[in-house]
Amino acid sequence: MHYPWWHVPYLTGPMLIAIVAVLHMFVAHYAVGGGMFLAVETTFAYRRNRRDYLEYLHNHAWFFILITVVYGAITGVGIWLTIGLASPLATEALIHIFIFGWAMEYVTFFLEIASAFAFFYYWGRLAPKTHQAMAWIYAVSAWLSLFFITGITAFMLNPGGWESNRTFSVGFFNPQLVPQVLARTGGALLLSAQYVYLHATFRATDPELRYLVQRRSTLPGLVGAAMVALGGILWYAYLPESSRAVLVGTGVLNVLMTVIFVVTAVVFVMLYLGPYRNPGWLSPGFAILFLLAGFTAIGAGEFVREAVRKPYIVYNVVLGNQIYADEVPILQRNGFLEGGTWTRAYIAARYPGVMEGRRIVEERLLDLPEPEQRHVGEVLFQYHCNNCHAVTHGVSGASQLLRGWTPEMVRAVSREPDRFHFFMPPWSGTPAEAEVLARFLIPIAEPFPRSLKHAEGRE
Asked: In CATH, what class is 13-319?
């Protein structure tokens, strides 16, 4: 608990991170796959002396730069802003653990930007071989950027043997690295084909040229769909036991996993029967449908990837309530409020009577007037629970989840939340703090719906 809490009403901070991240991933995959497409096709066009194709690729490069560099850069900065505010401890931990990896990623990102602008703005002014080199420098550096970032995000799900050997190489080359790189590379190839279809159906006016674009972009899309499926299977095989339990034990995640594989399979079939076998089938409506299907699979995949880490943000390192996992016993002994610089200062300023020197005496919290106990409970809820739960209406609103619960049930879940749901962090405070939290939760718990006959006798 080294940072103040950033309160996001209704959505909660992590859900805001998810929204920004998904919007970024819609173009981040295209930034990689589209770079590969431009490198391969520019080389092909120069070798075949296809001036008409080069003209089209120049037009596509403008579309590519606009989407990936402008929109992609803005949403990329948005990710850093939101994770820094909503998940500061996990961000700090990942920076410290992978400082060398981030440095390498920043180098590749600089190469991406420089080569992308040289490729586009010096079109027609560079010698063909130099121009092709710019395209390939971009394609390789974009994929390396994906590789470095994926190694770090894969660590968040399964750090492997890092806990016993805390080195960069052990953490980076974790069990989830290959599955996720495979799936993300496949997703990049597949989504870039869908972006190409969208652009070609509107901008490639010559039917022969449009068919050429479709034929040459479809095979990478088919390969990408197969890589996504294989990467997904390996991703599941290397899930930690608790993450697999979250996946199979949560209804919405089961639905989303089904959506991912069904949509990927449908897109594969549509690619094969449409642009690959019958290029004339592709129309603007067909292309838009393709792209929306890709967005659906990516959005569902990102949600599942984030959700299965619970109760952790960084598996076995940082818990969802922004404390290190190995701090839990200390906080259970000394107090959750005592463990945070900001919470301790707030309690000392508002309730000096509960202090003994600079230390909070948690048992004295129970001597406060009832309204003040509830206020302290609200502070505890904000820091310990708001990462996943809104208070009333909103994402997993506590008042709705506790609907119809008795005071005894609320007290029990306050003392041992992980016993009720294993994907919740353990209670990281003293029994007195758990009681104060319960006294905040009990009044906000909604009653049984009156339409339920079996509940009428309990009113």
From this structure: mainly alpha
